[in-house]
Structures are given as structure tokens and as C-alpha cells.
């Protein structure tokens, strides 16, 4: 299937184009991205509670790259002005949206793989016991063939990524 701006003169399928976008995003996160997975204290109306901050963001001075992330995977481009420096542009996904992206790009990540697995484990539900394994169960992504298979199956679930295709 031909998509505007891709597959020019080639025989790549739409699935290969989608996969290459996820691989590119994994590389961007490895080099330029920031992943936050932490618990912090928050003052709420009914007291002080521990809350989770789960987010993935890319901050760069190259606007077209950050705009590509927004157009392809959803979200907004935010400007981050800095005195005496170039304008920075930010793309951020949090909580469940970060989880959906983490599931897809974790097999392709190198330096941020551990943080991506933490996000996946936070939301992964053990269907047999009905519990949340965020308390110590780890996701094994050591088998690259299995991870690639999971990546292909999970990409179909990322609705906000597919809408731009």
C-alpha cells in the first residue's frame, strides 16, 4: 500500500513503514529523550498522597523532528523559550499513552530500555492472578525474535499513532 511521502520507488509494505517509524522513535528516545518513572508526594484536597509521574518526552531545538513526533504519535508541540539560547521544542506523552508507546519501542531501545520496561511493568496486568506486577515482576525482552513479534502485534493497538498514517 502506498502512503504519501513514503514507499517512493520501493516495495516496502505499510507494516514495514510503521515499524521503521517505531524504530526511529526508539532511537530518538535513546539519544534525545527523557523518561520519568517516579513516585512523589502531592498535596491534594483530602490530604497528602503518593502519586506516580510516568512520562516520556523529547526536547530539541530542531522543530521539524519534534513536529514529526506530534503528527505521527499524537500530542502537541510546546515551545520552551530560553534566554540567550535557541528555542527548544517539546513533545510529551504521559501515563497510558506513554505505556502504549513504550510497549512498541522497548524492543528497539538500547540506553532507555530499562526505563521503558518499568513503564510497561507498571501497567501490565497479570491475567492469571489479577494483580499488578509493578512490585517486582520483570518483562523479559532478551529474546529479540519474541520482542519483534510482540512489537508487530502491539503496533495495531496504538490508535493515536495509526491515525496519522
Features:
165 residues, alpha+beta, Endonuclease I-creI, four-stranded antiparallel β-sheet, 41% helix, 22% strand, disordered C terminus
Verbal overview:
The chain has 165 residues and is α+β, with helices and mostly antiparallel strands. It has one domain (14-162): Homing endonucleases (Endonuclease I-creI), CATH 3.10.28. Helix content is 41%, strand content 22%. It contains 6 helices and 4 strands. The protein has helices at 14-32, 63-73, 95-105, 113-123, 144-155, 159-162; strands at 33-44, 47-60, 77-80, 88-94. The protein has a 4-stranded antiparallel sheet. Strand 3 and strand 4 form a beta hairpin. The radius of gyration is 17 Å and the shape is globular. The chain starts with 13 loop residues before the first helix and ends with a helix. The relative contact order is 0.15.
Give the gist of this structure.
The protein has 165 residues and is of the alpha+beta class. 41% of the residues lie in helices and 22% in strands. It contains six helices and four strands.
- In this structure, how is the largest beta sheet organized? 4 strands, antiparallel
Number of DSSP strands?
4
The spatial strand order of the largest sheet comes to 1-2-4-3
CATH architecture: Roll
What's the mean pLDDT score? 75
Q: Which structural class fits the helix and strand makeup?
A: alpha+beta
Q: Figure out the total of helices.
A: 6
Instruction: Please write the CATH class name.
Output: Alpha Beta
| Number of structurally distinct domains | 1
Given as residue ranges, the uncertain stretches (5+ residues, pLDDT < 50) are: 132-165
Order of helices and strands: HEEHEEHHHH
Tell me the CATH topology. Endonuclease I-creI
**Taking Cα atoms only, what radius of gyration do you get, to the nearest Å?**
17 Å
Strand content: 15-25%
Q: Give the overall form.
A: globular
What helical percentage do the residues reach? 40-55%
Gap from first CA to last CA: 11 Å
At the fourth level of CATH, the homologous superfamily is Homing endonucleases
Amino acid at each position: 500500500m502506498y502512503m504519501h511521502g513514503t514507499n517512493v520507488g520501493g516495495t516496502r509494505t505499510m507494516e514495514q513503514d510503521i515499524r521503521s517509524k517505531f524504530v526511529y522513535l526508539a532511537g530518538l528516545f535513546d539519544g534525545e529523550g527523557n523518561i520519568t518513572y517516579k513516585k512523589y508526594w502531592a498535596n491534594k484536597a483530602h490530604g497528602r498522597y503518593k502519586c506516580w509521574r510516568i512520562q516520556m518526552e523529547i526536547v530539541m531545538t530542531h522543530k521539524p523532528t519534534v513536529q514529526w513526533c506530534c503528527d505521527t504519535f499524537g500530542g502537541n508541540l510546546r515551545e520552551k523559550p530560553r534566554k540567550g539560547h535557541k528555542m527548544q521544542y517539546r513533545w510529551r506523552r504521559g501515563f497510558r499513552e506513554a505505556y502504549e508507546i513504550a510497549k512498541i519501542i522497548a524492543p528497539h531501545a538500547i540506553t532507555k530500555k530499562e526505563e521503558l520496561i518499568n513503564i510497561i511493568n507498571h501497567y501490565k496486568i497479570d491475567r492469571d492472578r489479577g494483580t499488578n506486577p509493578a512490585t517486582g515482576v520483570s518483562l523479559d525482552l532478551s529474546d529479540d525474535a519474541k520482542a519483534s513479534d510482540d512489537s508487530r502485534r502491539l503496533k495495531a493497538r496504538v490508535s493515536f499513532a495509526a491515525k496519522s498514517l
